[in-house]
């Protein structure tokens, strides 16, 4: 009987933690809520571009470096020259996949957006993050946007 109560208590605590986690998540713009979007919650040691992108795109460090050095990584629409730049809440990281075949002013990207970053309570060396991942998102080309100004 004791183990049943203990299990029930642990289950109740876990449900409360999950509810708190869901409350921590901010509202997401409707255009980012698609059938191809995914919410990722994990822990990291630092909020650097390479670390967050690796988690947000679920790729290895070598895969990210390949994308980075090919020039297809963008942070908030700007090409990154250093992979260790800090990431802040609501920053968007894009990996350019290709140009749209139907409209040359559009590109197809994989995007991840940092929604939440909090220090872990039981281990302050870890940062709890929530990322929104979108695959094959059709957006206006950054270069085309800049040239119109």
UniProtKB/TrEMBL annotation:
Ranges that cross the membrane: none
Mitochondrial transcription rescue factor 1 C-terminal domain sequence ranges: 41-137
PANTHER family registered for this protein in UniProt: MITOCHONDRIAL TRANSCRIPTION RESCUE FACTOR 1
Keyword Nucleus: no
Regions annotated as coiled coil: none
The protein's name in its UniProt record: Mitochondrial transcription rescue factor 1 C-terminal domain-containing protein
Keyword terms of this UniProt record: RNA-binding
